[in-house]
Amino acid sequence: MTEQRKQPWWKNAVVYQIYPRSFQDSNGDGIGDIRGIISRLDYLADLGIDAVWLSPVYRSPQDDNGYDISDYQDIDPMFGTLDDMEELIAKAKEKNIRIIMDLVLNHTSDEHRWFLEAKKSKDNPYHDYYVWRDGVEGEYPNDMRASFGGSAWEWVPELQQYYFHQFSVKQPDLNWENPKVRREIYDMILWWMDKGVGGFRLDVIDQIAKEPDKKITNNGPRLHEFLQEMSRETFQKGDLITVGEAWGANTENAQLYSNPDGSEFSMVFQFEHMMLDQQPGKEKWDLAPLPFVKLKKCMAKWQNELCGKGWNSLFMDNHDLPRIVSHWGDDGKYRVESAKMLSAVFHGMQGTPYIYQGEELGMTNVKFADISHYRDIETLNMYKERVEAGYDPEDVMKSIYAKSRDNARTPMQWSSRENAGFTTGTPWIEINPNYREINAEAEQQDPDSVFSWYRTLVHLRKEYPVFVDGAFELLMEEDEQVFAYVRENDGSRMLVCANFTGTPAACPLLDEWKDGEVLVHNYKADVETELKPYEAVIVRKQK
Ligand code: TEU
Ligand code: CA
């Protein structure tokens, strides 16, 4: 028996990600804050988004810009107060915008009360909240490495033990095997649900069920058991959007993470497509050209294998990734055309689109003169490690220009005024000097801007259900320049067709679509069977 179910609201939603520290400062200390976000809600409403994913604003020593939480139930004074947070939730709701909190549950800060207790003694009731191994100083339990460099084990002389950390030494991993840890986390989530939040993004959630003795970090044996328990105890008691960040997801386990029966999350946020342009088996810093045909096949695989069985997030940018127009587009001559092309290709697919702050302006990567201008712990640690290992500092800087997380973390470019309208003080990280040309104020007024294009894409998704429920078919699979696909449901057929390169590309299939309705097109001319550099078009035919 098939049950006719109403589509959950988040299936045609568009999410906007805010990195609070770089969005809008309200008090001149150079750091973005919650009151700053409140003051920009009209901008978000103008763009038409349905929800905001807020990177962490909890109390934190800021070793990893808030991904190291010392109190899950308080706001860092740098960002404001709990009252500000409640006001943000309420004011956003008035504009039909839901607030998605970022839950970092794999680790806490080493300054969290639990960890301070845990390292007092082995008998402390909080000791077992974290992952410890006995050892001999200098001899690590094993050779596991932390994401931000160095060993994944840190020695605590007072206890003669090591604790496990997958990220920085200031981010000790929580022990999910301990049911008390899980209960504390669920109660905290329920507390936030009670405050009216619209959902949660779950940081590195595939890494919680680690088994360090077997060197297992992601997709541990008990992972889905924990996720289903968490969902039952918390999310299922509300009407939430939940999104699990999972670097280790594949199309099989994604069907568990985003099972349509709601037993885990609404959707998965996975990175297969973002990891194609690095040397196989190496790190993201080891650059390689984007294998375009592979990218198309990867996207098509996720589209087809999740259809009806799960739900994906559609993104090209976030606070950990370089700016997409610099990464896959052309941030010079064809900045506007290529930013529009890339977003058309992604927003036409099945899934929930995510727009990362500034992406809707076509903001670009930044090239600071030297390493002293960078702030990100991952970038700084990697620079030190590689230079010490004998890499040429100039080559290391090249990797940083291409991939550093700080590319995405320069302040939002609001206007051409001083400090891009971000702050009246000294920004915590330098502003991209191109803010005089690239900024929200100019783009909101310009019907041909990247911003206006994004606004149109957001609205199209609401207007045509085919974007949400249509089947997906990749065309011109082996073509080295054109990304083309069709979405189709009972009512319409939709063609998304784009030239991914800066040289003209033959695209004969456009001939068959001549009588279709052009919904968006990033050139003023008619659509021909030869696509201009970065040309993109979405055409619709009614059935
Ligand atoms: O990122 C997950 C993660 O694995 C990243 O460290 C990723 O490998 C790196 O950013 C790629 O450059 C999440 C958060 O999004 C990130 O900001 C945090 O630093 C990290 O978890 C730890 O909480
Ligand atoms: Ca501030």
Please describe the topology of this protein.
Layout: E1 15-18, H1 34-39, H2 41-47, E2 51-54, E3 58-59, E4 71-75, H3 82-94, E5 98-103, H4 113-118, E6 132-134, E7 153-156, E8 161-164, H5 179-194, E9 199-202, H6 223-233, E10 241-245, H7 254-257, E11 267-269, H8 292-306, E12 313-314, H9 324-327, H10 335-347, E13 352-356, H11 377-388, H12 393-403, H13 440-445, H14 450-463, H15 466-469, E14 471-475, E15 482-488, E16 492-499, E17 505-506, E18 517-521, E19 530-531, E20 536-542
Parallel strand pairs: 1-2, 1-13, 2-5, 5-9, 9-10, 10-11, 12-13
Antiparallel strand pairs: 3-4, 6-8, 7-8, 14-15, 15-16, 16-20, 17-19, 18-20
Helix pairs in contact: 10-14, 11-12
Bound molecules: 1-O-alpha-D-glucopyranosyl-D-fructose (TEU) and calcium ion (CA).
The largest sheet, given as strand count, sense and whether it forms a barrel, is: 8 strands, parallel
Q: In CATH terms, what is the architecture of the largest domain?
A: Alpha-Beta Barrel
What proportion of the residues is helical, as a percent range?
25-40%
In spatial order, strands of the major sheet run: 11-10-9-5-2-1-13-12
Content-based structural category: alpha/beta
Q: Which consecutive residue ranges, at least 5 long each, have pLDDT under 50?
A: none
- Percent strand equals 15-25%
Provide the CATH topology of the largest domain: TIM Barrel
Count helical runs: 15
Shape: globular
